[in-house]
Design brief:
Blueprint: E1 13-21, E2 24-28, E3 34-38, E4 49-53, E5 56-61, H1 63-79
Antiparallel strand pairs: 1-2, 1-4, 2-3, 4-5
Amino acid sequence: MLDVTHQIVCLAIPGKIVEIQKDHATVDYGDGTRRQVNISLVKVKKGDYVLVHAGFAIEVLSEKDAMETLDLFREMLSLEGDV
């Protein structure tokens, strides 16, 4: 029987490419957090916004879509204590 009491959720976070080094880039997540991600799956340039999952940029986003998604994450985090 399948145990559905513990669901696994995968999360992808948008960020901005601030530096590119071959198949990796430094991504800024907007709060001062920067991480190295693999960009071999997408075609990007400095300044692009990407969706990052498990250390890989998996999709290029418009700035508008990236900001809307980040705003939703911030809203969810602000409600975390209310649950």
